Amino acid sequence: MRMKITKKETIMRRGKCLFAMAVLFFISLPGLFAGGQKAPDSGQTPVTITWGVYETDNLTADLWAGIISAFEADNPNIKIRKVLAAGDDRASFWRTMQASGNFPDVVLEAEVYASIPGIFAEVPEDIIAQFDPAVLAVYGGKYITIPGMKQLRMQCYYNKADFAALNLREPQTWEEFLNVCRTLKAAGKVPLICGGTGDVWATGAPYWISAANQVLIDAYPNFNADLKSGRVKWNNPALADALTQWQNLVKSGYYHPGCMSFSYSQAAAEFQNGAASMMIDGSWAAAGFDAAGNTGFGVFAMPNPKNLKTYCAAVSYWGVSAQSKNKEAAFAFVKYVLGGNETIYRNYLKADGLSSTTKKPVNYDQGPVMNKFVQNWNSYTLTPEINKVAGDLAIPIGVESFIDKSLQNIFNGAGIAGELESWDAEYQHLLAAQ
């Protein structure tokens, strides 16, 4: 028998439904505002996006895991699967994955391959609006990468006890730096150390970034544009002289004889254990010393052969694959990590001694070595780092890795003119191929 529902009962039932909906809404509110900006909750089965990363002594598996856990807790409809780049040449690794159709949805160091046509999706305006316009890179009139961080580059770290024992002061000029090297060697100390095996960049990139790049930019302020147009070549007197000065350090016996057998991490450990008195290294080393409470090392701005008061800082970018099937989720992840959750962004920056790129700066407490690193450049002028310029004037993919290998050849005694000629040939080859 069908029961008749009165008007009063109908109103009461509707009221209960509305009340239940309201309860569900307010229960969901804490999740909406937890941690940082959340991606839309579609109510569907969680989607999975892949995130291409690399690991170092500071950018560890635990750091990436913490970022993933925080994001997934705030965004239960999106899962993140980490894809770790293998080997020293990450650009080649990601290019291989891209060619095989396995390119990650989100990838770090996007500037290295952003010149590949159609590789990255255009970035939504609301994300671009969060960043300092000075660090945005334009490719063909579009923003296809997101500035993830800014990295202060190379300075020279030194063993305070070695300097104190020989009454040495932090050198301010190239001549003073050479005198420090001579004094240390005469006292039976090894002045310098670098990496070689397994980490090709660790041989020449420290000197290139801290000194040679500055000399080259001083001689050719528009180097990237002039190189692309053919008005200048790598094989030029300014760069040849800067690299000759560096090779002379090796010929003078100022570098540890075992450099080519060390990885970067091994060289850094040998330095900290007293095998050499100085090591040119990045801001991440300062962050490492401070994290360990190690006060036995100081740092000074590395002089260059022209005594220029300039330095460079590299901006590194993130990108979302144009082939991603979950672009909305991918961009939500990028937005969350790079400032949407300020705590997560701060932890990421602090781990490696990095600087923020957002319009609203994200700062953190720095230790004494990192503070000194920053202060060393107070009176210096920022200039472009040639191999890290992003956008339409970016150096073709593969050139930087080629240069790293060539610098190792120069370290081992190869003729500089011949090596620079090979840079020009490789640059033209890769420029035509891109």
CATH architecture classification of the largest domain: 3-Layer(aba) Sandwich
Largest sheet: 6 strands, mixed
**CATH superfamily name of the largest domain?**
Periplasmic binding protein-like II
Distance from N terminus to C terminus (CA atoms, Å) equals: 78 Å
Written overview of the protein:
The structure is a single chain. Helix content is 45%, strand content 12%. The protein is an alpha/beta fold and 434 residues long. The protein folds into two domains: 47-152 and 315-351, Periplasmic binding protein-like II (D-Maltodextrin-Binding Protein, domain 2, 3-Layer(aba) Sandwich), CATH 3.40.190; 155-312 and 368-433, 3-Layer(aba) Sandwich (D-Maltodextrin-Binding Protein, domain 2). Strands 1, 2, 3, 4, 8 and 9 form a six-stranded mixed beta sheet that branches. Strands 6-5-7 form a three-stranded antiparallel beta sheet. Helix 2 links the parallel strand 1 and strand 2. Helix 7 runs antiparallel to helix 9 (237-251), helix 11 (283-292) packs antiparallel against helix 14 and helix 12 (327-340) crosses helix 13 (342-351). The radius of gyration is 26 Å and the shape is globular. Residues 1-35 have low confidence and may be disordered.
List keywords for this structure.
single chain, 434 residues, alpha/beta, D-Maltodextrin-Binding Protein, domain 2, 2 domains, 6-stranded mixed sheet, 3-stranded antiparallel sheet, 9 strands, disordered N terminus
Give the topology.
Elements: H1 7-33, E1 47-53, H2 61-74, E2 78-84, H3 90-99, E3 106-107, H4 125-128, E4 146-152, E5 155-159, H5 160-165, H6 174-186, H7 201-219, H8 223-229, H9 237-251, H10 264-272, E6 278-281, H11 283-292, E7 297-300, E8 310-320, H12 327-340, H13 342-351, H14 368-375, E9 381-383, H15 399-411, H16 416-433
Helix pairs in contact: 2-13, 7-9, 7-15, 11-14, 12-13, 15-16
